[in-house]
Amino acid sequence: MELIKRFFKESKGSFFLFGPRGTGKSTWLKSRYPECIMIDLLDPELQRSFTARPERLRALIEGTPDQHIVIIDEIQKIPQLLDPVHALIEEKPHLQFILTGSSSRKLKRSGVDLLSGRAAFRSLHPFMAAEIGEHFHLSNTLKNGLIPVIYSAKNPSESLKAYIRLYIKEEVMLEGLVRNIGNFSRFLETVSFSHGSILNISTVARECEVERKTVEGYIDILVDLLLVFFIPVFSKRAKRAIVQHPKMYLFDPGVFHYLRPKGPLDKPEEMEGNALEGLVAQHIRAWIDYTDTSLKLYYWRTKAGSEVDFIIYGEEGFWAIEVKNAKKIHPVDLRGLKSFKHDYPECTPLFLYRGQETLMIDNIKCIPCESFLKTLSPAVLNTAL
């Protein structure tokens, strides 16, 4: 398969590169830096060697003086390596270290020094629709997602199943993060119902028949593995009473589709609507990270029930976005945007739907969701917005 060009841009100096497993960190690095010192800590032999003697890193670098770029893949496997990395950055400023990982919080909790600000933090997300271009198909994406290792597979459904099992086996079981893998598996199914919603930990605990603290620990694991993200509520200059809790999303619609139990009482269009909202959320997060702006992503919900799915706010702009999995637009669909526009006349309201026409209704621009996603690119800040 032809290598898909990513929007991600590296830092000039040393940097951490974080992202869930399968998002293409290693593939991108090997393509971008074909000549470098590459240390893959997923290799059991290398992992044992550097765990026993972290100072071996210095010997390896000094033994290859013609190489100035050092890539350490999955650095969270051996956090102790950050000490010699820190020392080498101080002593040899011509060296550039690129440290990849699938858990930044795991590194922080280990108590190691994250290079005292001498390395930037960058994130690599699943594919964006604009990266795929004409090969992007919204319906397929809502089912299989955009994780590169899944997208490029001959059988995405089977690969997605293996991907979830990989996380449970390698990242959870082998790391000893949970005592009862059965409880954790049931938790994954239960928490999928909270995708795109405020997470009620007590309800999840009751459904899983475990204690609240156990669920809190499970949530921490998902955050550690970058499998979920939370969007805070927009509260700047609030004129109404608003809710205080963030919304939770699984990081990819394919993961959501696989984990979400399905049965006679589940409406396919409802599940697809949740997947669509999550897909837009992950695209906006990637777009913000890749444009390297001051923009932040929020949502808005009043205690009276008015809601807008996404608020993008920063020095570069102010947008309110509502997403609906419907081919027709009804007046009630625009009610939340109108309420928010009334409170914040400075914002630009956008309505994304599954229709084919771009319309202007009551000063609200209504855009086909697939077109919006295909156009959303960091090349020009306001391409789609």
Rounded radius of gyration (Å):
22 Å
Distance between the termini: 32 Å
Q: How many helix segments?
A: 16
What is the overall silhouette? globular
Structural class: alpha/beta
Q: How would you write the strand order of the largest sheet? A: 9-10-11-12-14-13
The overall pLDDT, averaged over residues, is 90
State which percent range the strand residues make up: 15-25%
Estimate percent helicity.
Answer: 25-40%
User: Largest sheet, if any?
Assistant: 6 strands, mixed
Low-confidence stretches: none
H/E element order: EHEHHEHEHEHHHHHEHHEEHHEEEHEEEH
Number of domains: 2
Quick recap of the structure?
With 385 residues, the protein is of the alpha/beta class. The chain has helices at residues 25-32, 44-52, 56-63, 82-91, 104-109, 129-132, 138-144, 148-151, 156-173, 181-191, 201-208, 212-224, 253-259, 268-291, 335-343, 369-375; strands at 15-18, 37-40, 69-73, 96-101, 120-123, 197-198, 228-231, 247-250, 296-301, 307-314, 317-323, 348-353, 359-361, 364-368.
Structure write-up:
The radius of gyration is 22 Å and the shape is globular. The protein has 16 helices and 14 strands. The chain folds into 2 domains: 15-123, 3-Layer(aba) Sandwich (Rossmann fold); 129-375, no CATH class. The mean pLDDT is 90. Helix 11 (201-208) packs across helix 12. The protein has 385 residues and is α/β, with parallel strands linked by helices. A 6-stranded mixed beta sheet has the order 9-10-11-12-14-13, with helices on both faces. A 5-stranded parallel beta sheet has the order 2-3-4-1-5. The chain has a 3-stranded antiparallel beta sheet with strand order 6-8-7.
